[in-house]
Automatic annotation (TrEMBL):
It comes from Sporomusa malonica. NADP(+) binds at G131, A132, G133, G134, A135, L226, G249. Its EC number is 1.1.1.25. Residues 121-198 form the Quinate/shikimate 5-dehydrogenase/glutamyl-tRNA reductase domain. This is Shikimate dehydrogenase (NADP(+)). The gene is aroE.
């Protein structure tokens, strides 16, 4: 990689960033496409976020990805927030155009793209979301925007699940339930797709998984896990053992990254290169 004063700069704002695979994934994509871009890790503690955002503009960055813990806080420093970020209530991609900072969220559409690539159609289907955090909100927004019939949000704390459900006030029914209640088992028995949006099963705590009563699920139910490290979580392994189609989190990571790549470059991303780089990094 030959970096010069003409090289276009993008990067990743978050804290900490020691294990992020995004720089390797995006730099491999830029190299494969012959683009003079570089993707830099930009570890930014919360107290330095305002200065970091001002620095992006001053240093001529094209944009950045935004990750924990800045995805909501960064919104107050932006000139414009795209509808994709307004629906999710968080920004994960920033584009700097004509000195204006524009916030987007590619998580929802990235997840839906990963389902489509796996041959999963959600129109008219019922979904259960495990977890009531920011990732859950993105998935619910993606589902609603693609004509899901109904969504149930299951969490340890019903108050959090209900609070998340109340954020969605359109025509699609969205409800909250507690994991330890019969309503949760009933929702699972009717679900066409179950999505884990919690960190349960993520490295290094790979033995954990959400409390799903597997015998309640339909045989044809699709089981999806946003965790991508490890590539095959215990949750997915158990679903596979029981005959369910499974979809891991790596696909969403690649697709949301590919959408960000297109926002920055105006070109389609080399998804195969991005996926190969990601999987190599995880192994």
């Amino acid at each position: 990689m030959n970096i010069t004063a003409k090289t276009q700069k993008v990067g990743l704002l978050g804290w900490p960033l020691s294990h992020s695979l995004s720089p390797a994934m995006h730099n491999a994509a830029f190299a494969a496409s012959g683009l003079d871009f570089v993707y830099l890790p930009l570890p930014t503690p919360p107290e330095a976020l305002a200065h970091a955002v001002a620095g992006l503009r001053a240093l001529g960055f094209v944009g950045v990805n935004v990750t924990i813990p800045h995805k909501v806080t960064i919104m107050e420093y932006l000139d414009e927030i795209d509808i994709s970020a307004k629906l999710v209530g968080a920004v994960n991609t920033l584009v700097i155009k004509e000195n204006r900072l524009i916030g987007y969220n590619t998580d929802a559409n990235g997840y839906i793209s990963s389902l489509r690539l796996a041959g999963v159609d959600i129109e008219g289907k019922q979904a259960v979301i495990l977890g009531a955090g920011g990732a859950a909100r993105a998935i619910v927004a993606g589902f609603i925007g693609n004509d899901i019939a109904a969504v149930t949000i299951g969490a340890r704390d019903k108050t959090k699940a209900d609070g998340m459900a109340r954020l969605f006030t359109g025509n699609t029914p969205v409800s909250g339930v507690a994991w330890d209640k019969s309503d949760f088992a009933r929702a699972l028995s009717q679900a066409d797709i179950i999505v884990n949006t919690t960190p349960l099963g993520m490295y290094p705590n790979t033995a954990s998984q959400p409390p799903v009563p597997w015998e309640q699920l339909k045989p044809a139910a699709v089981v999806s896990d946003l965790v991508y490290n490890p590539l095959n979580t215990e949750f997915m392994a158990e679903a596979t053992r029981r005959g369910h189609k499974t979809i891991g989190g790596a696909g969403m990571l690649v697709e949301q990254g590919a959408l960000a790549y297109s926002l920055w470059t105006g070109q389609d991303a080399p998804r195969e290169i991005m996926q190969q780089t990601l999987i190599m990094g995880l192994k």
